[in-house]
Amino acid sequence: MKIAERWFVMAGVALLGAIAVAGLVVAIYAAWVLHDMPDASELADYRPATATRVFAGDGTLIGEFSDQRRIYVTYDQVPEQVIHAFLAAEDSQFFKHGGIDVSGVGRAMFKNVFNVLSGRRLEGGSTITQQVAKNVLLTNESSLNRKLKEAILSTRLEATLTKEQILELYLNEIYLGYRSYGVASAAYNYFGKSLNQLTPDEAAFLAALPKGPTNYHPKRHPEAAKGRRDWVLGEMADNKWLSQEELQAALARPLTTRAAPRRAEYADADFFVEEARRRAIALFGQEEVNRGGYYMRTTLDPALQTAARQALMKGLENYDRRHGWRGAWGTTDFAPGWQEAALRRATPPERRTWQAAAVESVSGNTVRVRTAKDDRTGTLLASDAAWANANRPLKRGDLVFVEPQGGQFALKQVPAVNGALVAIEPQSGRVLAMVGGYSYGLSSFNRATQARRQPGSAFKPFVYAAALEGDFNPTSIVLDAPISFPGGPGGRAWTPQNYSRQYYGPQTLRRGLELSRNVMTVRLAQAVGMKNVVDLSKRMGVVDDMSPNLAMSLGSGETTPYRITAAYAAFVNGGRKVDPYLIEMVQDRNGQTIHRADRRQCRECGRGFSGQESPRLQDRGTQVIDPITAYQISSMLEGVIQRGTGASARGLGRWVGGKTGTTNEYRSAWFVGFSSDIVVGVFVGFDDNRSLGGGEAGAATAVPIFSDFMQVALRERPARPFVRPKNAIFRTVNGIEEAFRPGTERQVREDAPRPTQPEGPQNYYDVVRREQEAVKGPAPSTAAPPPAAPPPPKKEPAEDLSDLY
């Protein structure tokens, strides 16, 4: 017995030792597994990376900035049917278990025995709580260690958060394909809807995606996607979340999704949105902008933005057509697969009706083409065929762009020229529209803000403003006669010339600006002093720095369309420099305003209304020129359109002004124009700054773009008289009402002699007509044409820094 007892004691000791060792091993393993376990309580304040959404001034969604496309929604913002769809697909017992579904885990463990033996990926049998633990706190590896951590964290989550909080995290964190993180983003990217607009079948499709978004891609695997959707609908019905009638109706609906995800329905503001992104990053940093979930309201007016894009694209295409067909962009021998190769050539995304096509046959101006996308055949418009054949004749196999038009095809080509258009509200500086080029999809370089170019004669109003700030008025006389300065380029004298090479003797400042007299401008700048002109240009924001030499008076310095357009705003708003801006207001994910562009204080705005006068806010901006000077320039620039170089825009009516501009050798064409409520800058030029070609001046190239845009803008913001300064004295001179500073009106009698030219007619309006004909050519006449005049002398590039326009 003693031996037996001894063995019994030894066996007991051994067993206890084994248990102790096993316990120690388990403890060590548990400690090793749990040593880096995250704290589940962190999820109480967890917010995943969320997209910053960008809106126009009227609330239109125009873009988003994000690392992950996610729109965070709270639990009470998720419709019940969306919740039911995900519960049916992923965890129907979610509101009943404590974080782990024991029956589900048992089934998964049974299957995993075979998965381990076959080397397959382990199945989870995971609850929604476990998926939250895995997606938010753990890695995505498939191992027993991770499974253990997942189970432990799930119980901790259930103890820390409510079921609703856990489900909220799940619905916002999960990846659902189509660049979509969370259900709200997926609803928009797949269906273009908000969550409360989804039908049961659409909600069921979203709930089908967590198992494998790639496997159920609606375009690549439509049958599998619909099959999985229908299974989810069946599960919803089994759980009594859908009636049989609702189930049958949902099953009968086809699965229809967008072709691809979009950041916004509105697609005309790419240049504007990208510029807003750069400015937002400068304010808040890239990390916050891409992950902070900000609400950003911008200054954009969608109607004006669309009009701006259409006007600029049309103007650039018209210029391009004037300069002829440049030839096919490729060729094909019609071998199998030619369509796929042709479709790889990008069309401008903004021209959605353009198609790649191949020329099948050519017989004179009868050209037959075949489209690459849908294999349609047809003939080109005869006028387009003649246009192409006149320069580079079409031949079989040429790859071109076409656009269906009335049963035929119009021939299209992407312009080589580019440009920009900016529209600003002069009283506030709000940027209402911005287009930085022909197509953002083809080139994202923003010529509105990034292209520094010489503005040519569009700079002249600042020279005249400097003169009016001094001793000059609109009726002051300046001599229009040849002038020369020593020490020009190459040691030669610099002799500025008028565009027409003609000179008209003594002229008023008004006429000098209306007809853009180069020599008068140089003489005026000399009288005023270029230092004063430069100082004023800096104060008004045209340039940061400029050499104070006379050549700069003709616009040979550099600026951007954005800056010069903003500077023109001072001519309309009473002489105040406003800083243009794109971002009106920004709120963080909690609805707190963290940025507001208008920082003016209103002490009495919060009081109740008792019949008293409304509070008055101070004007925005800094006073940089006298209000009378601003009005004088506005009136004179109205004359540019009514009687001067901008006469082709006269159809816009009264109270619209502006100034043309063209640089030496026709390298850039400009028009900066305005009404009382909008200032618009238009620039056209090649990116390599080569010549636009003879005659492609601001009046011919930029003014039509301005006119097309303003026809839309004036419907929304009708032109009205420019605000008359309170202390100005008005006198009628030569049939035009002029504004004077008090006391200076005595310098001019209302019956003052009209400006004349030595060799021309004495009537003022005959002079106007004759000068306009020098610009535009005479009006059509039934009389026999006079003998052709000899061509003007050839320009010397070194001497001609700016022309008439």
From TrEMBL:
The keyword Cell membrane belongs to this UniProt entry's keyword annotation: yes
Subcellular localization(s) per the UniProt record: Cell inner membrane
Keywords tagged on the record: Antibiotic resistance, Carboxypeptidase, Cell inner membrane, Cell membrane, Cell shape, Cell wall biogenesis/degradation, Glycosyltransferase, Hydrolase, Membrane, Multifunctional enzyme, Peptidoglycan synthesis, Protease, Signal-anchor, Transferase, Transmembrane, Transmembrane helix
InterPro entries, A to Z: Beta-lactam/transpept-like, Glyco_trans_51, Glycosyltr_51/Transpeptidase, Lysozyme-like_dom_sf, PBP_transglycosylase, PCB_OB, PCN-bd_Tpept
Signal peptide as annotated in the record: none
Pathway: Cell wall biogenesis; peptidoglycan biosynthesis
UniProt keyword annotation of Nucleotide-binding present: no
The protein's Enzyme Commission number: 2.4.99.28, 3.4.16.4
Transmembrane segments: 7-32
Residue ranges with Basic and acidic residues bias: 741-753
Domain Glycosyl transferase family, first and last residues per copy: 59-236
Main location: membrane
Penicillin-binding protein OB-like domain residues: 325-417
Compositionally biased residues, Pro residues: 783-792
One Pfam family hit: Transpeptidase
Gene3D superfamilies referenced in this protein's UniProt entry, alphabetically: Biosynthetic peptidoglycan transglycosylase-like, DD-peptidase/beta-lactamase superfamily
Domain Penicillin-binding protein transpeptidase: 419-711
Catalytic activity: Preferential cleavage: (Ac)2-L-Lys-D-Ala-|-D-Ala. Also transpeptidation of peptidyl-alanyl moieties that are N-acyl substituents of D-alanine; [GlcNAc-(1->4)-Mur2Ac(oyl-L-Ala-gamma-D-Glu-L-Lys-D-Ala-D-Ala)](n)-di-trans,octa-cis-undecaprenyl diphosphate + beta-D-GlcNAc-(1->4)-Mur2Ac(oyl-L-Ala-gamma-D-Glu-L-Lys-D-Ala-D-Ala)-di-trans,octa-cis-undecaprenyl diphosphate = [GlcNAc-(1->4)-Mur2Ac(oyl-L-Ala-gamma-D-Glu-L-Lys-D-Ala-D-Ala)](n+1)-di-trans,octa-cis-undecaprenyl diphosphate + di-trans,octa-cis-undecaprenyl diphosphate + H(+)
GO MF entries: glycosyltransferase activity; serine-type D-Ala-D-Ala carboxypeptidase activity
Domain of life of the source: Bacteria
Membrane topology, record value: Single-pass type II membrane protein
Ranges for region Disordered: 741-805
Record-stated family: In the C-terminal section; belongs to the transpeptidase family.
Name of the protein this chain belongs to: Penicillin-binding protein 1A
